[in-house]
Amino acid sequence: MCAVRPSACRAPFTTRARAGSPACAVGDEGDAVRDIATVIGRRLGLPVESVPQENFGPLGPIFAMDQPASSAHTRDVLGWQPTHPGLLEDLENVQR
Question: Which of 31, 41, 61, 95 makes the best surface tag, with the fewest CB within 10 Å?
Fold first, then answer.
């Protein structure tokens, strides 16, 4: 779950939602683990290949299923709009 602490927000933002309700502040809508790994591999000059989930031990099932995050509710309820680059674009532009 994504969350935004009310103390980190301006008052108009926090007065539109019920106190303690979750808010997911991500600009992307469901980047696949494969796509994230592909960008990281390309940026580091490393090959990327699919491997069985068992190679990751107990974390394997987590990496094997994409768990998309959505800010649709946050945008609707709070009127929030992302202003920064998405994850994949940000990874493409990381300075080494």
Answer: 95
The predicted model scores a pTM of 0.66
Tally of CB atoms within 10 A around 52: 8
Domain count, the chain: 2
pLDDT in tens, the chain (96 residues): 344 444 444 444 556 777 777 777 778 887 888 899 999 999 999 999 988 999 999 999 988 887 777 888 888 888 888 888 888 999 998 887
In a domain? residue 15: yes
List, as one string, the DSSP characters of 47-96.
------GGGGGGGHHHHHS------HHHHHHH-----S--HHHHHHT---
